[in-house]
Specification:
By secondary structure, the protein is an alpha/beta fold. It folds into 3 domains: 2-76, no CATH class; 80-291, Rossmann fold (3-Layer(aba) Sandwich); 322-359, no CATH class. Helix content is 49%, strand content 11%. It is built from 15 helices and 7 strands. The chain has a 7-stranded parallel β-sheet, sandwiched between helices. Strand 5, helix 10 and strand 6 form a beta-alpha-beta unit. The longest helix has 28 residues, at 294-321. The relative contact order is 0.10.
Length: 362
Amino acid sequence: MFQGLLERILTTDFVSTDGQKKTTERLRRRDLPEAKAHAEGILQGDRILLSRAITLIESTRPEHQAIAQEVLEICLPHAGRSTRIGITGTPGVGKSTFIEAFGSWLTARQEHKVAVLAIDPTSRLSKGSILGDKTRMERLAADPRAFIRPSPAGESLGGVAARTREAMLLCEAAGYEVILIETVGVGQSEVAVHGMVDFFLLLLLPGAGDELQGIKRGIVEMADLIAINKADGERRELARYARREYNRALQLLPPKLGGWKPKVLTCSSLTGDGIPEIWQLISDYMSQAQQTGWLELHRRQQAKNWLFDLVKERLELRFMSHPAVQSNLQQIESEVLEGRISASHGAEVLLRLFDTPEALPR
């Protein structure tokens, strides 16, 4: 019943009240053969087809989105078997260098397949990635057991590309056992990363000012592990001091819902010190979360949040592209700015324009 309803919705023409077709968003089943080819390649571990599928996911063209959704539906039963790790940190902390060292250790010592979804800052001119994480992780990029996908952050919350979650599912279906999601930096909005991973790793620098280095308490509260990076050479003692300070600070934070007690470690991407200990802690966390049932509960809640995030995102897109809204938005905005009407009145007018017969399928 639901499948039939979905089929009718996806193949509905949206027309205006005067009978003229303004836009057609037909997600036709003619795209199924191409979707199957992509999905079969992904399930066989084909990195080229995986990259192409992620490109389709990131595309805003309706025909690309149609294929991407079919690929996701086919791959979804094969996803969910990885360890999802979010990595954030202050600017200059060495996130990419750490990920290359960590990922290389995982592929070489643990023989894991590792996927890195690196969220790059976005160029305002080209809308593309600025830093290019693939060029900053040359050793890992050449590793046959690794897959690196830099994506422009766009305008999405916390630098998380709008389709990162879908890309993560495809990487899991392709057999990658560890997914590393790198963000553009630390900020209140990095909660978006926390909402899609199992384990949240916060990288900090030794001796970089006061104990919290200007980081909001909420970021520290979300962290499952704080790693003091660049703990080598003359900074080794500073890193030990920072570790003691953070351990004290963590004692003042409320306990985490899953029962896990966050830890603080030191590490060096240059020497590799602390890398095995970090992976051991992550493994301990995953074991505990699986045994207590927290992992399943956490992922189910994430999926629910994901659902409603997408509903809000697509409702906003449809609202802003509605002809009646587009025609009246500037005038209503001007009246609000000039104080002639209240913001709530303006919003109600726009919503009434949106909620008209021309917005409904015929």
